[in-house]
Write a structure and sequence with these properties.
Elements (H helix, E strand, L loop, with lengths): L6 E5 L14 H12 L5 E3 L3 E8 L2 E8 L8 H11 L6 E7 L7 E5 L7 H10 L5 E6 L9 H5 L5 H24 L1 H13 L1
Parallel strand pairs: 1-4, 1-5, 5-7
Antiparallel strand pairs: 2-3, 3-4, 6-7
Length: about 200
């Protein structure tokens, strides 16, 4: 039986100090921010995940950072977290970096294709469904002459780092709104915040 009202929020990223703070680890950074807000600490859970638990108005939320070799293999660890906590895919939020949006843009979306993100593709393939919510964190496109791989594995620019905390706070607000008030309300609040 599924844990009543429990959610899993999986921030995608590459494990290890070499990748810390890179654009491709935007998902890690955002779940770190959620944990920090609620005084939670990540702990190793098995070989594949670091996990922290928080509570939002009585709802249990499990924050997950998959750590299985590569972001491209996130599906197995995420599926394992859902099984361990008896949470259906409908109450999974995957936080990912997204090249299709400018730095600072955030989008909540349920379902749909992976949009070229191999970590999201892996999650969908292992779960056998795309019926989960994604929080897409815009990182922009690489400058002319730089490969996508080098760009996403690079660190945020000085200008981006200055506004990154506010971006992560907005993303954390969106996750909390989703859990507490549902997708439509969370999308509306996120869009309104972007216009102010």
């Amino acid at each position: 039986m599924a844990a009543e009202g429990c959610w899993v929020v999986a921030g995608l990223g590459n494990p290890g100090p070499w990748f810390a703070g890179t654009r491709h680890n935007a998902g890690y950074l955002l779940v770190d921010r959620l944990a920090e807000r609620h005084g939670a600490r990540f702990r190793l859970r098995g070989l594949r995940n670091r996990v922290a638990e928080i509570e939002l108005a009585g709802r249990r939320v499990v924050l997950v950072k998959p750590r299985w070799w590569s972001i491209n293999l996130s599906g197995g660890p995420v599926a394992g977290a859902l099984r361990a906590h008896q949470v259906p895919a409908e109450r999974l939020v995957v936080v990912q970096d997204d090249l299709d949006f400018a730095f600072g843009e955030l989008r909540l979306k349920r379902g749909g294709g992976p949009g070229g993100h191999n970590g999201v593709r892996s999650v969908g393939e292992v779960l056998g469904t795309r019926d989960f919510t994604r929080l897409r964190v815009g990182i922009g496109r690489p400058p002319k002459g730089q490969t996508v791989g080098r760009f996403v594995l690079g660190r945020f620019s000085t200008e981006e780092q200055a506004t990154l905390p506010a971006l992560l706070d907005r993303g954390a607000d969106a996750v909390e709104a989703l859990v507490l008030r549902g997708l439509n309300r969370a999308q509306s609040e996120l869009h309104s915040a972007a216009l102010t």
